[in-house]
Amino acid sequence: MMTPNPTLPRDDPAAFDPNRDIGRLLVSCPDRPGIVAAVSRFLFEQGANIVHSDQHSTDPTGGMFFMRVEFQLPDLERRREKLERAFGPVAETFGMSWRFSYAARIKRLALFVSKAEHALFELLWRQRAGDLRAKIAMVISNHADLKKTVASWRIPFHHVPVDRERKAEAEAKQIALMTGKVDAVVLARYMQILTPGFIAHYPNRIINIHHSFLPAFAGADPYAKAYERGVKLVGATAHYVTEQLDAGPIIEQDLQRVDHRHSIEELKRIGKYIERTVLARAVSCHVEDRILVHENKTVVFA
Amino acid sequence: MMTPNPTLPRDDPAAFDPNRDIGRLLVSCPDRPGIVAAVSRFLFEQGANIVHSDQHSTDPTGGMFFMRVEFQLPDLERRREKLERAFGPVAETFGMSWRFSYAARIKRLALFVSKAEHALFELLWRQRAGDLRAKIAMVISNHADLKKTVASWRIPFHHVPVDRERKAEAEAKQIALMTGKVDAVVLARYMQILTPGFIAHYPNRIINIHHSFLPAFAGADPYAKAYERGVKLVGATAHYVTEQLDAGPIIEQDLQRVDHRHSIEELKRIGKYIERTVLARAVSCHVEDRILVHENKTVVFA
Amino acid sequence: MMTPNPTLPRDDPAAFDPNRDIGRLLVSCPDRPGIVAAVSRFLFEQGANIVHSDQHSTDPTGGMFFMRVEFQLPDLERRREKLERAFGPVAETFGMSWRFSYAARIKRLALFVSKAEHALFELLWRQRAGDLRAKIAMVISNHADLKKTVASWRIPFHHVPVDRERKAEAEAKQIALMTGKVDAVVLARYMQILTPGFIAHYPNRIINIHHSFLPAFAGADPYAKAYERGVKLVGATAHYVTEQLDAGPIIEQDLQRVDHRHSIEELKRIGKYIERTVLARAVSCHVEDRILVHENKTVVFA
Amino acid sequence: MMTPNPTLPRDDPAAFDPNRDIGRLLVSCPDRPGIVAAVSRFLFEQGANIVHSDQHSTDPTGGMFFMRVEFQLPDLERRREKLERAFGPVAETFGMSWRFSYAARIKRLALFVSKAEHALFELLWRQRAGDLRAKIAMVISNHADLKKTVASWRIPFHHVPVDRERKAEAEAKQIALMTGKVDAVVLARYMQILTPGFIAHYPNRIINIHHSFLPAFAGADPYAKAYERGVKLVGATAHYVTEQLDAGPIIEQDLQRVDHRHSIEELKRIGKYIERTVLARAVSCHVEDRILVHENKTVVFA
Fold it and tell me: For the domain B22-102, what is the CATH code?
């Protein structure tokens, strides 16, 4: 069962936010007749106007049902708790997992990086341009290289070196830095593997990006292997991190055509530009509450 | 106001159709709170299970609201009329344009062609492969060239020459051939301009395909003009035919990269393959009742 | 060392072929200065005009050099042998692998199919439309299902059942059917694995198509696995067949976006349309002599 | 006739540049036999090794021939003048327009901007990342808004207000700022129309980016028009600026799928991200000397 987000302190005054009265309800449950009717009647009775609504059913007979409703409800912030309480009985009737979220409560992100800056930069730039509706709460890195760059954006930078022998310590430090300040973690080319313990702190809240090829080239130096096989497409995959390395639910993918004229270096460069775009799109979907995870698969509402 | 489809005789026995009990309701009306709730409650009360539901609102305050619901209702064929009657009051409350359609009542198409066969062929093949859920009721052409090809598919072929001076006569003949047998017209590279009189017989039921370029090259020999400007993309646009030539609501578009190495002939060949795909996708959307037209724009539900 | 194609009997009179005097020279050798100069001087001295020329070097210092030249030489058919003989010393100087080919000598294909018709159909249609410059010499299948379809195209159809215990016999029969009549084999969704013995008869002349995903899903039922992981892209890969199953040099790849709304059936349908296009493009590249294979990689000249 | 670039002072010491000995020769002339042979023989005799070579002929009989050769010649900087002099007679024989360029002589760009920062930012970032091999010599703007941003990159920023009545004065000032310091001008969302006089100073050296749609929507507020027509693709076109507004030779184009769910604001946002990528790719092609212009068309070598 998903639980409503805890009340979070915000440093952005919601006073003039056009999103002030926009709420989102995400629901998943076994499919059966009457779910949409019940949810929309509930919102109607609460005085909410449905702005967007998207549903998905894997199979109307015995499958799973997923729903995302975006609604407008005057004075939403004040009525938040009452709304969530009132939804309880509806949810119970259908055995729903559910959560409400609030556009005004902008998600706070920790960006994890190593030395590469392209994915980090893209997120910073989109956030500043108003296209990524999130707060970059901090950047955490196992290297100090990007400290100055991050500082110029006036974002806290934490250098947490990761020693293979003492990874648990490093992760404890990272978690301490984030506690109460971060809603989701973005691995923006962070070249360390997280432990199951760390991952358990942020279930379906850690987003990773990695290259991807047709076919897959596992192990070290994938671009060299892809080059040797003469791939015609270079791509990237963004996914939620689970205990199974790089096998979590896929959020977004894209790729670009290449040919024999591209050197390994050029394949890497092209991959870099795809990575930054795919990761940024995935993070946008996450912070706009467009993603429901069921088993090892995402439903990403448009 | 959209009116429900008239009862149409069908030569496909619906007996074992997996789509037998699948209905679709398409609705458009001024947006206001409660529409989704009312529609889903209505369907629930009728005993229908919503399989897919997609909505779109241009603006929750004063905008237009569009909705497509696919539902399963046992014994749908028999309950069809009662269902449509019962929906009347709901529709009236919200000032809805609406129509029900029935997956078992497969749409009947007339394909209009001239000499080019690529778009025709794609539709025939997709229909036979089960990927275009339509009946190709007839092919009508102003030339006799494709008669033999069409005959080999056991589809009626009508050669209706079009004389510029006597176009009205030709169109009257075409309409006579189609009356009671055709639900929509597909211009599969039909090189004649239809008169407003003809178009009025099939409002938002005539689909055309034409090349498209960035920027646009109007008038004769667009491929030559595109070549001379050195375009890097060649595309195609499928749209509903309105009185304004090639300016009707766009249904689907796609394109492909080209470069200076492509001759005019090659651009045309590439355009041909895009055209067949874009047209086929547009026709699929139409026959699956995924398209709502408002003003000069389509809402195409996935 | 590539050897020139043997003289092949042709049933297409070259008399009025616009390609009559078009030849192609494909060369690969260790890179070093002077190769292009030597080749172009040779052609110039022979009276040939270079129409297209494309080169590729993996590394000017110690890498491999690849070249494709398309040229026009009046009365080419008659001068063919002399031309090839004259090139010998040039090739020897640079340690070249090389082959001449002649646009007028249209490549003859055997299409191998099982039950699926989409890839077969696309090739037949493109060939008839003049877009695939090949002769479909025969269709060979381990099933009889497509016999009638193929017959309607007036192309010889050979039903060669493949018994797992007696595959060698079946392959011997296939090879006997093709000997002297076929230049390349296209596996157009042929659901049998070829033995190394068969493959050795057509080195870099057997083209296969298979689905491909990011990441790869090996083994049975890849579409179901891709669905369960929630892939956002569905693709296909065409490659030359080598002894290593599905690991031969990639010729062409493409893919299409999908999302959670696509059922396994729909993913398969989308995959089907990508397969037919990717295979057709790969076969076109092959029959137009645009592909050089080096180690496990193709150079595909535009 | 293209003339060789004047000798330009450079502040980047070429000492350790891996591109130090890389030269490029671009040629266009009426096609006829022997051009490639003559050029490659010339380079061979000069001791140069051809690294890449790409040709294009619009028609071997009476068409135009285009060629780009990238070569390696030890001690190139010192032998530059001699090389260019020696090529004169070869060029004359074939009536060539030609130019040599030198990878070590990095092109210097002036970026023209107004208030939007996305295109500027992309170019700055790619340059810093080493992916745009150019020097950003200065930024010129008709507004002061981006002054601080540019300053943080330690790049000279010149605020040159443009008064409609006194545009000539403003342009004179711009040209004065650039003289001797700039090889090409990039209009990175510069919202002023340049006069023919200005354009004449930089023939085929001014690159502009603008949105593009299928079909085209001319005049004010193109995104609103595109929205009202319900376009399914949003794109951007980069081109050289000529006297004919937005009708110069196209360098690069790209686009992205959209649907009815995208508001005008979202179409603009998507357009923004395509613009930055398309412009960056076009500028890369320019500074790597990959573009030949003939009449109103580009040949863009890969």
Answer: 3.30.70.260
